């Protein structure tokens, strides 16, 4: 039986190659999603660690333990801790970066053995810290020796430079504790052997705060242990600190579950829970888990249509195979083979194909996920940053699932077909049946469900936005609705297409040239066979359009929002020191920062002073004072470095600035303020800044949006609900305001030169010793926004989904047509023998491609457009954040469409070229012999 | 000899086989006069179909000349050959060769479309006439899948005749028919050749049909083995 199966496979090698290709794609796609996701999470995790590292300045992956061992009999608690530490790494399953033991005796009075003039009381902490040699640079003197003792028995210590300055120690002097003695009651004498400085200012080995090292003298750790711990521990009070630093670079996303569990165990359930602490890591884990669950929920939803299409693809191909093998199966059946035998034959064939598919599909899937990782926007790749893809157990589960699905698709139809004997077959062939979906009106059902979903989401869009903001994942039904809409409309088109075709055909019924005539008739009579491949094409195109619109919209909206929120390229606000009188009371004035440095900063293109206070008040209105943001600007300079899209304003942004420019005490006020107080142009309002002064002005216009102004703030309350609060803004002249109000701290708003380097800004800040209370850098913020994992992951999965569907579509289309043409080989032979020209044959092929391919593609465009229009505005809410200010708008890019068309046209042309060659190379005489046997 | 529709002069055809060549036809001479019904007889592998393929210009002889209506076909381009096939020739194949997506009427009409015959009442009338001629006047709207093998083959014959070709080539058209039906087809060919003036060349190995032909050409192992006498007797009966 196996031999027959293999022989059979060899005889139909082309068909089996197609099926193998299908299996390869199925496994590759199924595997690439988890591979990509894991790799993306790995990257996200590392980003998270790096972010915590840079923003908090502490090693983000460490456990801190501290105990105070007071008169610890036998040193049991210290040795317990020392034994625990190496186990921590094993328990967490992480590599050790550095383990730090830090012991310090309590602060005690000390005096120099030398005669010194300073009568000040001196205090010192005698301590030992492992690894200190590797983290210091000796400024003078030397590190303590191996023995740690001088010849006369004093303990060699090293001290920090700060300590030396603060305490006035001298290198080489010996100091002696006033009261503290050794266990044996000998005096405790320290010899200052060296002075060190931290070898690197940003070294995470040094967790001590500024000034904490001022009284610490470090001695040899081994010596410390032998003198103060173990049996001798009972005599001392020792502060013990233990730091287990994990090497987070080797941590993977898949480790996080285990680490999270271990954290919980150590922090809450273990015997040591009271002495262990890890605030940063705990926070990081929580942060990461939140992001992870939100992203994975979203990404899984986005993958569903692709996986559905994959299964449909395999069913289509295997259906095509059984269609061609029907004769054979029914003949075997009629000759007495049992159904089980037939099924076993196909099962064997399926197993061979599926194993082959996995062997080639997994490497392909890994390559595909690397491609995914390079997606920056829809169909836009950036290979400069490579994604590290590795095969995970999770991916293996996916691969297994895909193999099983493949096997089911390849063998289950055999059960149905094995029931049919040659007699039934002949009868069946004579019947024309309506497709199942047509009979149950699946198209109408899909559209109805999607329509209901659309209506529902439209109605509840506010509460949906809220649930997303509170960290919940996107409602799967929403994405499902849009997919159902696409499927429903696609099926509806399939229902209508034959009618349209029939209409065109009837118009010129008698006049159609032979090629057109055959094509029409073929499509009218056998169009149903093409439905699946047409649905495939429709879905590929419409999903492509829809996905590109989703990706484009969320990315561009995020960028626009960041752009607007920041206001301009660079916003700096220095610390303004209040001038005080001799009694220390504020005089109301400030030391004005030096402005010269801004002129000399070579990364600044132009800059302007801006009064921007969020705690001003409008006074003398109904219902008491109202908090407003007060902005004072120099209209000309301000206009040069800021911009607001006209679509947000109703008229050009500069028109507002021009109006303001010609009115000395004019004010532009936010529209929501007008609505709140019923203001109108020409009204006079007074505003005041506490501790500074007050002024008044005349309203000359109202505005909805102004650079960096958020009309509403959404805040998440502790109970998880979202609060929306209105913000008001009053904009006037800088000169007028500063003249009337007196000295007001201002901000510097600047535009940057092209290619201005962020590091140059930092250098400039350091060199000029600028102390800032506000720093906004738009380029950096935009970078951060673009590299947000949710955004990147969405782009990746959507692009991936499109690439896969396109690939499937291309391969499926080709396979379908090869098989369809093979099936009609005899007819082509007859046509050629009867004198059909090659040109006519080509026309026929083109016609059929138009009926099947072009029609579907056009329908796909229409459906994609409609679905984007309906669903993107809802879907994008899933990507909303609390700092979203601008209204989200549907954004489509002409280039996306052109790229999509280009890819599809290329695919179709390739198919057509292949089919043309195949058709032209057909041996007519041989084709005619087909039925001879 | 201008009234010969087909002239075959010293035609040989060799196929490459492992280790040399196989001569499927060896120095064949034959002609088919206008309006005659000729049977090409021989066992399987005797070279019948090879000769037929050469005559219908789907294949080229290794040696020798084939003339259709006095024109040496080797001088024609592929396009001209195709034009000749669609206007001057009609074909009936051994296997059922109807276009499955067209009904009986449309299948017959299709060969007229191919021959460039203008649409209109005359064309429709001719289609109906041909279908009635083969006894299928009442099944014009039936699809091939709804007809028996013999009925389909008769539609194929009607199709081959509809555009009034000069020459009808039939390759084992009766192979899948029962003997009564086969005899009717042969008889039909004989009548058509007289009535419509169409020259018909039909291959068969069915000896029961020989009587219907004007004369026979018999092949064996690629050589012509019949003689003039046989032809005479064939035409008399």
Could you please describe the fold and organization of this structure?
The complex is a heterodimer of chains A (933) and B (237). With 933 residues, chain A is an alpha+beta fold. Chain A has 29 helices and 26 strands. Chain A folds into 3 domains: 62-246, no CATH class; 433-566 and 780-933, no CATH class; 567-779, no CATH class. In chain A, 55% of the residues lie in helices and 18% in strands. In chain A, a hairpin with a 6-residue loop joins strand 17 and strand 18. The two termini of chain A are 24 Å apart. The model of chain A has no long low-confidence stretch (mean pLDDT 83). Chain B has one domain (4-236): 3-Layer(aba) Sandwich (Rossmann fold). Helices cover 35% and strands 27% of the residues of chain B. Chain B has helices at residues 48-55, 78-88, 104-114, 121-133, 149-162, 179-195, 228-236; strands spanning 4-17, 20-33, 37-41, 63-68, 71-72, 89-92, 167-171, 199-204, 215-220, 223-224. In chain B, the strands form 2 sheets. In chain B, strands 6-7-8-3-9-10 form a 6-stranded mixed sheet. Chain B has a 4-stranded antiparallel sheet with strand order 2-1-4-5, with helices on one face. In chain B, a hairpin with a 2-residue loop joins strand 1 (4-17) and strand 2. Chain B is globular, with a radius of gyration of 18 Å. The chains are: A alpha+beta (933), B alpha/beta (237).
CATH architecture of chain B: 3-Layer(aba) Sandwich
First-residue to last-residue Cα separation of chain B: 25 Å
Number of domains of chain A: 3
Strand order of the largest sheet of chain A: 3-4-9-6-8-7
Low-confidence stretches of chain B: 228-237
Could you give a short description of this structure?
The complex is a heterodimer of chains A (933) and B (237). With 933 residues, chain A is α+β, with helices and mostly antiparallel strands.
């Amino acid at each position: 039986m196996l031999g027959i199966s293999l022989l059979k496979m060899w005889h139909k090698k082309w068909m089996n190659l197609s099926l193998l290709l299908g299996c390869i794609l199925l496994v590759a796609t199924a595997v690439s999603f988890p591979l990509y996701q894991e790799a993306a999470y790995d990257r996200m995790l590392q980003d998270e660690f790096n972010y915590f590292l840079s923003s908090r300045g502490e090693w983000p992956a460490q456990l801190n333990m501290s105990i105070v061992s007071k008169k610890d009999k036998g040193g049991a608690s210290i040795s317990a801790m020392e034994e625990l530490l190496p186990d921590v790494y094993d328990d967490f399953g992480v590599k050790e970066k550095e383990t730090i033991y830090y012991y310090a005796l309590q602060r005690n009075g000390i005096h120099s053995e030398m005669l010194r003039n300073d009568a000040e009381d001196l205090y010192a902490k005698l301590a030992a810290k492992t690894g200190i040699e590797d983290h210091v640079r000796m400024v003078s003197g030397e590190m303590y020796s191996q023995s740690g003792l001088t010849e006369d028995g004093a303990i060699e210590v090293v001290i920090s430079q700060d300590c030396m300055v603060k305490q006035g120690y001298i290198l080489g002097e010996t100091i002696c504790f006033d009261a503290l003695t050794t266990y044996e009651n000998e005096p405790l004498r320290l010899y200052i052997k060296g002075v060190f400085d931290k070898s690197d200012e940003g070294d995470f080995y040094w967790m001590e705060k500024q000034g904490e090292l001022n009284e610490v003298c470090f001695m040899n750790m081994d010596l410390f242990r032998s003198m103060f711990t173990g049996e001798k521990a009972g005599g001392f009070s020792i502060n013990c600190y233990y730091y287990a630093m994990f090497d987070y670079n080797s941590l993977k996303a898949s480790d996080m579950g285990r680490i999270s569990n271990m954290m919980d165990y150590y922090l809450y359930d273990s015997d040591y829970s009271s002495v262990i602490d890890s605030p940063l890591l705990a926070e990081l884990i929580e942060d990461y888990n939140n992001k992870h669950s939100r992203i994975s929920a979203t990404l899984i939803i986005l993958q569903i249509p692709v996986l559905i299409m994959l299964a449909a693809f395999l069913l289509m191909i295997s259906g095509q195979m059984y269609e061609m093998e029907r004769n054979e199966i029914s003949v075997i059946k009629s000759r007495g083979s049992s159904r089980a035998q037939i099924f076993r034959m196909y099962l064997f064939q399926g197993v061979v194909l599926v194993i082959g598919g996995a062997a080639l599909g997994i490497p392909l899937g890994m390559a595909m996920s690397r491609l995914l990782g390079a997606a920056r926007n829809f169909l836009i790749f950036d290979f400069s940053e490579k994604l590290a893809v590795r095969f995970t157990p999770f991916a293996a589960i996916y691969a297994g699932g895909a193999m099983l699905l493949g096997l089911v698709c390849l063998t289950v139809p055999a059960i149905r077909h094995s029931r049919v004997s040659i007699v039934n077959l002949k009868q069946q062939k004579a019947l024309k049946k309506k497709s199942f979906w047509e009979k149950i009106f699946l198209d109408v059902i899909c559209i109805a469900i999607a329509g209901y979903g659309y209506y529902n989401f439209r109605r509840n869009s506010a509460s949906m936005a809220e649930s997303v903001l509170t960290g919940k994942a996107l409602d799967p039904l929403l994405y499902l609705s849009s997919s159902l809409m696409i499927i429903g409309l696609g099926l509806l088109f399939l229902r209508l297409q034959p009618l349209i075709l029939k209409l065109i055909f009837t118009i010129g019924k008698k006049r159609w040239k032979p090629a057109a005539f055959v094509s029409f008739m073929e499509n009218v009579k056998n169009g149903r066979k093409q439905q699946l491949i047409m649905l495939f094409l429709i879905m590929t195109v419409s999903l492509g359009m829809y996905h590109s619109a989703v990706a484009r919209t969320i990315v561009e909206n995020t960028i626009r929002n960041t752009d607007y929120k920041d206001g301009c390229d660079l916003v700096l606000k220095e610390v303004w020191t209040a001038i005080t009188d001799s009694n220390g009371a504020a005089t109301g004035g400030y030391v004005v920062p030096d402005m010269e440095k801004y002129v000399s900063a070579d990364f600044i293109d132009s800059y302007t002073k801006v009064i921007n206070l969020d705690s001003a008040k409008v006074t003398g209105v109904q219902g008491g004072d109202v908090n407003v943001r007060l902005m004072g600007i120099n209209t000309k300079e301000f206009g040069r470095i800021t911009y607001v899209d006209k679509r947000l304003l109703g008229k050009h942004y500069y028109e507002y600035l021009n109006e303001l420019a010609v009115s000395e005490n004019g004010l532009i006020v936010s529209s929501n303020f007008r609505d709140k107080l019923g203001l109108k142009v020409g009204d006079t309002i007074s505003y005041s800044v506490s501790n500074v002064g007050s002024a008044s002005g005349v309203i000359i216009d109202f505005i909805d949006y102004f650079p960096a102004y958020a009309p509403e703030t959404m805040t998440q309350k502790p109970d998880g609900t979202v609060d929306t609060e209105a913000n008001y803004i009053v904009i006037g002249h800088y000169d007028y305001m500063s003249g009337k109000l007196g000295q007001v701290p201002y901000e510097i708003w600047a535009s940057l030169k092209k290619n201005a380097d962020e590091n140059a800004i930092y250098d400039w800040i350091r060199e000029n010793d600028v102390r800032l209370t506000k720093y906004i850098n738009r380029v950096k913020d935009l970078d951060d926004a673009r590299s947000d994992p949710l955004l990147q992951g969405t782009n990746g999965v959507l692009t991936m989904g499109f690439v896969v569907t396109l690939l499937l579509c291309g391969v499926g289309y080709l396979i379908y047509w090869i098989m369809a043409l093979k099936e009609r080989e005899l007819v082509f032979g007859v046509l050629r023998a009867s004198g059909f020209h090659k040109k006519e044959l080509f026309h026929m092929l083109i016609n059929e491609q138009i009926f099947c391919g072009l029609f579907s593609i056009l329908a796909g465009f229409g459906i994609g457009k409609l679905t984007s229009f309906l669903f993107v505005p809802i879907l994008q809410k899933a990507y909303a954040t609390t700092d979203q200010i601008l209204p989200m708008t549907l954004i489509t890019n002409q280039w996306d469409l052109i790229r999509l068309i280009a890819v599809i046209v290329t695919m179709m042309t390739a198919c057509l070229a292949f089919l043309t060659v195949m058709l032209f190379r057909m041996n007519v005489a041989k084709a005619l012999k087909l039925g001879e046997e | 000899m201008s009234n010969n529709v087909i002239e075959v002069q010293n035609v040989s055809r060799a196929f490459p086989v492992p280790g040399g060549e196989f001569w499927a036809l060896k120095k064949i001479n034959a002609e088919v006069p206008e309006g005659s019904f000729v049977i090409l007889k021989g066992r399987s592998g005797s070279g019948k179909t090879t000769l037929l393929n050469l005559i219908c210009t789907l294949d080229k002889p290794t040696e020798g000349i084939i003339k259709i209506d006095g024109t040496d076909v080797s001088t024609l381009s592929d396009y001209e050959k195709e034009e000749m096939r669609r206007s001057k020739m009609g074909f009936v194949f051994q296997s059922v060769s109807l276009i499955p997506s067209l009904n009986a009427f449309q299948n017959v009409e299709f060969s007229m479309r191919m021959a460039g015959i203008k649409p209109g009442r005359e064309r429709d009338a001719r289609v109906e006439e041909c279908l009635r001629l083969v006894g299928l006047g009442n099944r014009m709207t039936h699809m091939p899948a709804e007809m028996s093998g013999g009925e389909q083959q008769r539609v194929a014959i009607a199709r081959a005749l509809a555009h009034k070709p000069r020459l009808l080539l039939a390759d084992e058209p009766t192979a899948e028919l029962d003997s009564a039906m086969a005899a009717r087809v042969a008889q039909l060919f004989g009548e058509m050749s007289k009535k419509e003036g169409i020259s018909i060349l039909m291959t068969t190995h069915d000896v029961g049909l020989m009587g219907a032909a004007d004369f026979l050409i018999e092949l064996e192992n690629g050589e012509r083995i019949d003689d003039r006498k046989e032809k005479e007797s064939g035409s008399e009966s």
